[in-house]
Amino acid sequence: MSGRDMAKPLLGHRSMEGDPSITPAAGRTIGVLGSGDFARSLAIRLVCSGFKVVVGSRNPKRKAGLFPSAAEVTFQAEAVKKTDVIFVAVFREHYSTLCDLADVLAGKILVDVSNNTEINHHKESNAEYLASLFPACTVVKGFNVISAWTLQSGARDGNKQVLICSNNQEAKRTVAEIAQVMGFTPVDMGCMSSACEIENIPLRLLPAWKIPIFLALGLFLCFFTYNLIRQVIHPYIREQKNKLYKIPIEVVNTTLPCVAYVMLSLVYLPGVLAACSQLYYGTKYRRFPDWLDQWLQHRKQIGLLSFFCAALHAVYSLCLPMRRSHRYQLIETAVKQAVEKKMNIWVEEEVWRMEIYISVGIIALGLLSLLAITSLPSIANSLNWREFSFIQSTLGFVALVVSTLHTLTYGWSRAFDENQYKFYLPPTYTLTLLVPCTVILAKVFFSLPCIQQRLLRIRRGWEKGRYVKFVLPSTTGEYSSGETSSNV
Ligand code: NAP
């Protein structure tokens, strides 16, 4: 999968926006059954969009005051008689109470806006259930992914996509037209069998983020434990020093950059594995294993979590001098210096190391911010393919290299100092270098002209061992054709 895939909308269905078959619908009368939160917001939005609205309630007198004066609130049977398109803004459990209206509803379009409380709660979707109760009506599933709040704010804020499905093209087009006039983007999700999928969408909690979040938490836990052993448990066991105060800031702050750095390398590692697989099999048409496919699809989220950890690390680092423990240490050093009558403790090498370390860290964070911003769909959509791939692929790789420099300047020569090996455990930064350096070396290897050429050919459709037609100039200057194996 290419970096461009990360910018693709999550719903790969056809947007109906700009469909020439969709004509303006404002002025038409729309019915709404129910007088709850959704019905109210819907009525307000419809009135603001220029529609005439008639609301059907079991108790119109009591509910009329809740609706804009331009909307007519009447009994359910009265309301449905006045329109051909009716939004059913009642819960699935109450659909059967509408069966008395079956005769007046016959031949009309019913828009099912309902949601469930659990994923795949019922065997059949709510829309299919509604269609089974009213076989003489045409049911369209739609608007359920839009909240009452978004309806009121008029699609300026919140989700703009209205997912629509129905077995009747004409009815679907009518509802798409209404959605468009209301300022939403209708998305054709196909026939009624998609209703179940549409009803599950509002119930899913960050589906694309689950794996990346677990990955980040897992890495955080591993590095946190490792740092805890080195920074808190080791001094306690070896020197009976209580360093528990380091846990909230110091240990967390040494853990966060480790997670950020390794996560950033995990954005580019699947690309390397994919390239290795393509080189090995000599084709791009062989399917990647499922785990690699999943990994490739989650790169954007992994990258954003890497940026999140890096940003937290920056904030924690800025706060380090604010700590009381830091001030005590400073005073202690000054006192020691006075007692030992040392006038100058300036270490040139340390000064340079710190200057370079901070500067490179700032550049890395800046590059990560750029990657994060350009991964937002609204920004990604304004970039062409070359710009997007330059930022996400080339600058992303530069960010990884700069982060590696940041890590190396942090470590400096500590890897060679035996005092740094607490319980024989190497400094944490040496562990974090493992995956990023592998990725960087692999990328350098892929950039060798012979490898790069082969990869390019594979990605353009060339296959190892496949026989292709070729045309060669003969010694006489004429062209002769034949067949050969393309990998010869
Ligand atoms: P609600 O505030 O509880 O309103 C439900 C309405 O259903 C009632 O006001 C009632 O109006 C009507 N109703 C008709 N027959 C009924 C019966 N037998 N028993 C009880 N009420 C009956 O619910 P809501 O939040 O507006 O949600 C309505 C539908 O929209 C649901 O299917 C929900 O899943 C969907 N939805 C809601 C939101 C949201 O943000 N709220 C978002 C997406 C989808 P009358 O008393 O006037 O008849």
From TrEMBL:
Q: Which GO terms describe its biological process?
A: copper ion import; iron ion transport
Q: Which GO terms describe its molecular function?
A: cupric reductase (NADH) activity; ferric-chelate reductase (NADPH) activity; metal ion binding
Q: Which InterPro entries match?
A: Fe3_Rdtase_TM_dom, NAD(P)-bd_dom_sf, P5C_Rdtase_cat_N, STEAP_metalloreductase
Give a yes or no for keyword S-adenosyl-L-methionine in this entry.
Answer: no
Per the record, what are the reactions this protein catalyses? 2 Cu(+) + NADP(+) + H(+) = 2 Cu(2+) + NADPH; 2 Fe(2+) + NADP(+) + H(+) = 2 Fe(3+) + NADPH
Q: What GO CC terms are in its UniProt record?
A: endosome membrane; plasma membrane
> Membrane-crossing residues?
211-229, 259-281, 302-323, 356-376, 388-409, 429-451
Q: Which UniProt keywords apply?
A: Copper, Endosome, FAD, Flavoprotein, Ion transport, Iron, Iron transport, Membrane, Metal-binding, Oxidoreductase, Transmembrane, Transmembrane helix, Transport
- Boundaries of every Ferric oxidoreductase domain copy: 259-401
- Chain ranges of the Pyrroline-5-carboxylate reductase catalytic N-terminal domain: 29-116
Name the record gives this protein: STEA3 Metalloreductase
State the organism's lineage: Eukaryota, Metazoa, Chordata, Craniata, Vertebrata
